[in-house]
Amino acid sequence: MSHPFKTAVESWDFDAIPALLAEDVVFRSPVAFKPYHGRAMVGAILLGVSRVFEDFRYEREVGGEGPGVHVLEFKARVGDVDVHGVDILTTGDDGLITELTVMVRPLSAANAVAAAMKVQFAAIMESPPG
Fold it and tell me: In what residue span(s) does the SnoaL-like domain sit (predicted)?
């Protein structure tokens, strides 16, 4: 059975994602040093990511149901750059995501994500969620 986050992302239902996040969720970006905090902020960031990634698909899921760590391996494109990465989800006893860490490779992909997300982050910071 797939993690509900995976199901929401695969169906491109970004309105469903905030309900899967703990109120004080922490997001660790592959392109930012400082983590982001809070359900509204992380939801806005993930919506921004949905505008950047093309041909996004999960390739593999590691982890079972219930609390713990789940790893979702993905592939996508940003412009003409292929992106290979993982979403590492940590969930609490209530099943909500308490931490989301995203890692991407190769370096050219990280650079492409950083450049594309710069525009998204500017829009988010101009009108912060929450």
Answer: 8-99
CA dihedral over 7, 56, 92, 13, signed as positive or negative: negative
Average pLDDT of 117-122? 78
Question: Is the N-terminal amide bond of 106 cis, ω within 30° of 0?
Answer: yes
Dihedral sign for Cα atoms in the order 65, 99, 130, 117? negative
pLDDT at 24: 97
Beta-carbon contacts of residue 26 (< 8 Å; ≥ 6 apart): 35, 36, 37, 98, 99, 100
For residues 37 and 25, the answer to whether their CB atoms sit within 8 Å is: yes
CA dist., res. 28 & res. 26, Å (int): 7
Segment among 20-29, 58-67, 96-105, 117-126 with least mean pLDDT: 117-126
What integer pLDDT is reported at residue 66 of this predicted model?
Answer: 66
| In the predicted structure, residue 92 carries a pLDDT above the cut 80 | yes
- 101 CB-side CA count, 13 A: 9
